[in-house]
Amino acid sequence: MGLNVIMMGPPGAGKGTQASRFARERSLLKISTGDILRDAVKEMNPIAVSAKTKMDRGELVDDDTMVAIVRHRLTQPDALCGFVLDGFPRTVFQARALDVIMEDRRNGPLVIIDVSVPEDELVRRLASRRICSNCGTGADPFGRSTTCKKCGGKLVQRVDDDQAVVLERLKVYQHVTKPVLEYYRLRPTFRTVNGAQAPEVVARELDAMIEEAAKASIA
After folding, report:
1. Annotated catalytic, 204?
2. What is the pLDDT of residues 181-195, one digit of tens each?
3. Catalytic residue among 21, 129, 130, 191, which?
4. Active site residue 24
């Protein structure tokens, strides 16, 4: 039986880092809607280009576009054994659509993890975050290097990490995405982890929560 995980949390909570680590250690496919969009933008897909422009302004891409992107990605062979979703669902509409998708897949439980971090800490983290302008890989926010360790590209601030955009993204999260947590909160597979702790502590607690939640789903 497969394992499917949704990594929830506001911008800067560290959900992407934890999603990548967990997926790698469990040999699961990590699906980031941001990565999917960036790949499509490189291919000059007009829908993806329009969606990426909205993301850079701190806005959310419309539900139908995001659902279509994720549904298509989950039909690929490498997603059949399970996945870790980062950045989806962001609205209750998307969450309901994912439930329909999961009914068709029937390949294991859907575990929802909320990575919770206070807003002042989120703003601090995002202001210091850097990514590679060439490959998009994130860098250690406390490091002093100006080049990417992966490909040697230049490290820059993400367009959507500008302070004004950050505040708008957090506002959007509170008004649009947070209701998704309420949609999932009463499920036996929903868990909240304190994301303000050291990354290795978050990782240990997150792993234990996912294992326990997966068992609860089949109890």
Report:
1. no
2. 999 999 999 999 999
3. 129
4. no
Taking the C-alpha atoms of residue 35 and residue 83, their distance in angstroms, rounded to an integer, is 15
pTM of the entire predicted model = 0.78
Contact 206, 21 (CB under 8 A): no
Catalytic residue (one of 90, 125, 130, 191): 90
**Of these residues, 15, 30, 125, 191, which one is catalytic?**
15
Q: What is the pLDDT of residues 127-142, one digit of tens each?
A: 777 788 778 776 655 5
Answer yes or no: 57 catalytic.
no
Cα–Cα distance, 154 to 82 (Å, whole number):
34
Q: What is the DSSP letter of 77?
A: G
In Å, what is the CA distance from 75 to each residue of 55, 70, 78, 121? 25, 9, 8, 37
Q: Which of 21, 130, 158, 191 is catalytic?
A: 158
Could you give all domains of the chain from N- to C-terminal order, each with its CATH number? 3-117+161-217 (3.40.50.300)
Phi-psi domain of 154 (left: phi exceeds 0; alpha: psi -120 through 50; beta: other): beta
Catalytic residue among 73, 130, 169, 191: 169
Lookup: tokens for 97 = 């659509």
pLDDT along the chain (219 residues), means of 10: 90 91 94 78 73 73 84 86 92 95 87 94 79 74 70 75 75 87 94 95 96 82
Question: What 8-state DSSP symbol labels residue 108?
Answer: S
